[in-house]
Amino acid sequence: MARKPLDSFKDKVVVITGAGSGIGRALAVRLTELGAHLALSDIDEKSVEETATICAGHGRDIWATRLDVTEREAVIAYAHDIRAYFGTVHQVYNNAGIAYYGEVERQSYKEVERVLDVNFWGTVYMTTSFLPYLIASRDGHVVNVSSLFGLITYPGQSAYSASKFAVRGFTEALRQEMLLARYPVRVTAVHPGGIKTAVARNAGAAAGLDAASIARAFDKRLALHSPEMAADTIVRGVHEQRARVLIGAEAKALDLLGRIAPAGSQRFGAVMSRLLRIAPRPGARP
Predict the structure, then answer these.
(1) What is the DSSP secondary-structure string of the chain?
(2) Fewest beta carbons less than 10 Å away: which of 37, 54, 133, 137?
(3) Rounded to whole angstroms, what are the CA distances from 42 to 22, 196, 263?
(4) Mind telling me the catalytic residues?
């Protein structure tokens, strides 16, 4: 059966965080091709401006700016400015995120807090700030990017997995609230598998771990899909109003494994740790 055309994005005002590279940039390109107006942000001002340049030429309005999603007041002001400029907001894609490698006994509180600030609190601030405008649009959609590691865990990723499980829980609860209140806002949680993005390459690591080596191992062994493939899958899922979007066969398989055999999914985490050559080492929390 032929798929329905992706015509639900035309003239929609779409907000994307982390739009300077990877999935965020690919989403911006795909959505502007489909006729959406874009409000793009990233912590890296130069990269988000490059994305805006790439997206130009489709006759769509594009707003690009630097934004640190951990700064709550800045996010609130940003939401107000976007609504004032475009007149409405239809979709928010909370894609900004960072990664971090380190065992629980080795990582510092500061490092854990930073991961949670960006990945979880950034999502909370953006969602909460834009939600009144999404409700007012009568055709709203919140799209929160969690991770494969919001479905399963593996050693060395406690902070990252905690943040992505939190995004998942927040998103699923929000969806229920919107349904209960009968608000015209749909909510989607996205769980990408191995995607070739800068998140892994730019990840921090606890003392004694080589972040660059870990990132190279990830890219070589686990980064199976392009950002463009991920963006296409997300766009299709949003168009079809799915509650959950799993990207890649590995995400689908591990989601199923986690539901029918939780212990098996944890064993998989140990296997993945060996694959990436991240082995627990003696040490103490700084």
Answers:
(1) -PPPP--TTTT-EEEESSTTSHHHHHHHHHHHHTT-EEEEEES-HHHHHHHHHHHTTSS--EEEEE--TT-HHHHHHHHHHHHHHHS---EEEE-----EEB-TTT--HHHHHHHHIIIIIHHHHHHHHHHHHHHHHTSEEEEEE--GGGT---TTBHHHHHHHHHHHHHHHHHHHHHHHHT-SEEEEEEEE-SB-SHHHHT-EE-TT--HHHHHHHHHHHT--B-HHHHHHHHHHHHHTT-SEEEESHHHHHHHHHHHH-HHHHHHHHHHHHHHTT---------
(2) 54
(3) 11, 18, 38
(4) 160
Report the distance separating Cα 256 and Cα 251, nearest Å: 9
| Residues in CB range of 16: below 8 A, 6 or more apart | 24, 27, 28, 31, 38, 39, 40, 41, 93, 95
CATH topology of domain 13-275: Rossmann fold (3.40.50)
Say what the pTM is.
Answer: 0.88
pLDDT in tens, 133-177: 999 999 999 999 999 889 988 888 899 999 999 999 999 999 999
pLDDT at 52 over 70: yes
